[in-house]
Automatic annotation (TrEMBL):
SMART domains: eIF-5a. Keywords: Hypusine, Initiation factor, Protein biosynthesis. eIF-5A seems to be the only eukaryotic protein to have a hypusine residue which is a post-translational modification of a lysine by the addition of a butylamino group. One of its GO terms (molecular function) is translation elongation factor activity. The keyword tRNA processing does not apply. Belongs to the eIF-5A family. It comes from the Eukaryota. It comes from Thalictrum thalictroides (Rue-anemone). This is Eukaryotic translation initiation factor 5A.
Length: 158
């Protein structure tokens, strides 16, 4: 066989989006993956070891992107997936008519693939501040291939 006949498509297994951590070591305000969603843990309770072996951890968590409450029960000795969560600040350049924002990255490039936030108060603050000509910095949270604007800072007039 010649080298031209081998065409492999690269695929992403998603393994780099999360890392394993023992359920018994995950604490409140940490992160966990529940039903394929990145969540922030708001409550953890651990039951005692029962007749059938393992102590169990009961997690109550809030999805970091849509705010939904999710729950999961995992044996404390088992591994859970924990998402890699990143927060990045970008300067707001423009808000387009179709609901996308244009952001300035640290290296001087633009990032144009983010939509306006769905949170009404954040959306109003962003639109009003931009209309007033203020210099705005947005905080973008990213995890598991998803990105959303989660906060806004006013750094003064332009």
């Amino acid at each position: 066989m010649s080298d031209e006949e081998h065409h492999f498509e690269s695929t992403d297994a998603g393994a780099s989006k999360t890392y394993p951590q023992q359920a018994g070591t995950i604490r409140k305000n940490g992160y966990i993956v529940i039903r394929q969603r990145a969540c922030k843990v708001v409550e953890v309770s651990t039951s005692k070891t029962g007749k059938h072996g393992h102590a169990k951890c009961h997690f109550v968590a809030i999805d970091i992107f849509n705010g939904r409450k999710l729950e999961d029960i995992v044996p404390s000795s088992h591994n859970c997936d924990v998402p890699h969560v990143n927060r990045t600040d970008y300067q707001l350049i423009d808000i387009s008519e179709d609901g996308f924002v244009s952001l300035l990255t640290e290296n001087g490039n633009t990032k144009d693939d983010l939509k306006l936030p769905t949170d009404d108060t954040l959306l109003t603050q962003m639109k009003d501040g931009f209309a007033d000509g203020k210099d705005l910095v947005v905080t973008v949270m990213s995890a598991m291939g998803e990105e959303h604007i989660c906060a806004l800072k006013d750094i003064g007039p332009k």
